[in-house]
Amino acid sequence: MVDITAQEIERCAPLDGVRTASRTSGSRIGFEDVSVAYGGLTVLKSLTLTVHPGEIVALIGPSGSGKTTALRVVAGFVRPSSGRIMIGDRDVTDLAPYDRQIGMVVQNYALFPHMRVEDNVAFGLQAQGAPRDVIRQRVPECLAMVGMSAYGKRYPRELSGGQQQRVAIARALAPKPQVLLLDEPLSALDTQIRRAMIDEIAKLHHDLPDLTVLYVTHDQTEALTLANHIGIMRDGEMQAFGEAQALFRHPPTRFAAEFLGRANLLSVGGLTAAGPGEARVRFGGAELLARNPHNLPEGRDCLLCVRPHHMRFAGEGAVANALTGVVQSVQWQGDVHNITLTAEGESLRMTCVPMAVPPALGDQLRVCFDPSEVTLVPEDAPRG
Amino acid sequence: MADLAAHAVASPRPGRSFRAGLLWVVPPLLVLLVLFFYPLSLIVREALAPEGEGASLLHIETVLRSREFVSGLYHTVVIAGSATAGCLVLGFVLSLVIAFIPFPGAPIAGRLIDMIIALPTFLMTLAFTFIYGSAGLLNGLLVDAFHLEQPPVDFLYSQWGVILAEITVFTPFVMRPLLAAFSTIEPAQLEVASSLGARPFRVIRQIILPASLPALLAGGSLCLLLTVNEFGIVLFIGAKDVITLPMLVYAKAIQEFDYTSACVIAVVNVVLSLGLYGLYRAIISHFGGGNAGRV
Ligand SMILES: Nc1ncnc2c1ncn2[C@@H]1O[C@H](COP(=O)(O)OP(=O)(O)O)[C@@H](O)[C@H]1O
Ligand SMILES: [Mg+2]
């Protein structure tokens, strides 16, 4: 919807104002039925996806699932074997990478090693023929944006990984691209710096609300923190796509539930409707109440998705959705306790606030969860 | 110096291994002394103080001021300089094609280069005379086609023929280190550069060229070294007016029996070579050798 408005603005704008108009309104990225094949092997299968102007979409999936390929097809380094790539309302499928006006940040920074930081940042502006005074003004601006003002005269090898990645981001943003592609930009950094960088990228996007971002990662924290929408990739196909929270709360497939936030998935049966959007299912001897957002039909065998942090200890009285399990392992991780139980032959993970006296191995534990926080997920169709 | 220091630091037990090391070093040094430095010293002595004459530098001045020597030095420098420049340009372009333009034969092309390095230098020259020589393929075709009396193509028997032959023979010596340097360039850098709006020519100029500068310098100085001393190619082409320093040494010593002049010129040639070799080593060690590759 939003991108149609953007197109209209662009169409109405006078010719010489087109670039400004489109910049203030942002550009969408559109995959239209895009397939990519290497040799005979199709590694991206009929991908259709729109990243709306100003939005961050994360593509997440295991290694080899085609995320990088999807990004490279937008950048122009891979030609689709079929389909079209749109940026704004330009069909860029046949454009060379240097004509696409895209910012790109990759995992290993790829800074130009023989150029000082400021020359790295100026590179795109020079290549696109920006006047000298514009460059002289824009480079410090971009370095300030990523907090690297003090490092302009350094060479990349004199910077830490995190600093190099900031420079890479500044370099990508200097020519004011409408579209930014990030390929696992934080995977080479250690956990603490990665956390800080997630916050900084979020802040950066807050300051540049028109920037359309396609963010490839295999890290769910990055995806959940930054993205408006998340696409889950598997074997070259987009398995699931949706608004980040909705996708997390109501994963549409087993793969989505497992990949995004390590859910407990219990095999349940005997589904019967119970109130609007809810259903009753049987798990061994227990009867459980859960949300049924995908409207699975009655009688269907399916999976019950319970996030580890939604499980609680149940008291003695009658509670809904109570299960009894045997403690298999107890792990203390500083800010949480991880407990593994088995119930009805299936293993269940729960996380809870640290306890002074944690349950012991072999203890019988009664746990429960809120019906509004558990979701029924269809079992994946057998893959062939 | 730097790598000497590095070796000293890296050596695990400098005190104990010193004597054992000496044992290993002395015999080859002796062999080197007998086989190489002694004859060299004879040449130097003959140049400085010819047999039968007193020590005087007058004859040296005479040789160095002679027309032959000046012209020989001029030809040597011009041929070596032009051939090296040609090798660098041709080597850079060919290496770019092999390294960055995907085509099925690229690995074979790489191996072919190694093979050319292994061949004797005059072989290519021989092939040249078959193709461009006065009785060669090209002239034969042209004479037949246009009913000419004289073979029209005769550049081979000039300075240009020598330069062309040397470019053909020595370009692989530039390409080896260049290909090694290109293979260390991160492909992502080239991709990011082009996504920033840089066209291929700018990517070559601003990313690839600076990254391959050490290799170009090393390959170039090696080429210079080889072309300054090249004898076989010049001899095989046999151009009348193209006399280089090695040719002059040959002419003086073997044809005119003027050993003293031959030795003076040879010493100049050796000094020139050692200077270039020093340059080559300096470049390799300055850039750490990693990028420059080895030939
Ligand atoms: N240049 C290439 N040539 C052949 N196969 C490739 C090439 N690049 C990627 N692939 C294959 O395409 C598939 C998807 O790769 P990629 O998009 O890099 O996955 P991801 O980024 O999700 O890890 C993988 O199976 C990979 O082996
Ligand atoms: Mg990848």
UniProtKB/TrEMBL annotation, chain A:
Keywords: ATP-binding, Nucleotide-binding, Transport. The keyword Manganese does not apply. Residues 29-260 form the ABC transporter domain. One of its GO terms (molecular function) is transmembrane transporter activity. It comes from the Bacteria. PROSITE patterns: ABC_TRANSPORTER_1, ABC_TRANSPORTER_2. InterPro entries: AAA+_ATPase, ABC_SmlMolc_Importer, ABC_transporter-like_ATP-bd, ABC_transporter-like_CS, Mo/tungstate-bd_C_term_dom, P-loop_NTPase, Transp-assoc_OB_typ2. SUPFAM superfamilies: MOP-like, P-loop containing nucleoside triphosphate hydrolases. SMART domains: AAA. GO terms for biological process: quaternary ammonium group transport. GO terms for cellular component: ATP-binding cassette (ABC) transporter complex. Belongs to the ABC transporter superfamily. This is ABC transporter ATP-binding protein. It comes from Ancylobacter mangrovi. The lineage of its organism: Bacteria, Pseudomonadati, Pseudomonadota, Alphaproteobacteria, Hyphomicrobiales.
From TrEMBL, chain B:
It is found in: Cell inner membrane; Cell membrane. GO terms for cellular component: plasma membrane. Pfam families: BPD_transp_1 (PF00528). GO terms for biological process: 2-aminoethylphosphonate transport; transmembrane transport. Keywords: Cell inner membrane, Cell membrane, Membrane, Transmembrane, Transmembrane helix, Transport. It comes from the Bacteria. The chain crosses the membrane at residues 21-40, 73-100, 112-135, 155-175, 215-239, 259-280. It is a multi-pass membrane protein. InterPro entries: AminoethylPonate_ABC_perm-PhnU (IPR017636), MetI-like (IPR000515), MetI-like_sf (IPR035906). Residues 73-280 form the ABC transmembrane type-1 domain. Belongs to the binding-protein-dependent transport system permease family. PANTHER family: INNER MEMBRANE ABC TRANSPORTER PERMEASE PROTEIN YDCV. This is 2-aminoethylphosphonate ABC transporter permease subunit. It comes from Ancylobacter mangrovi.
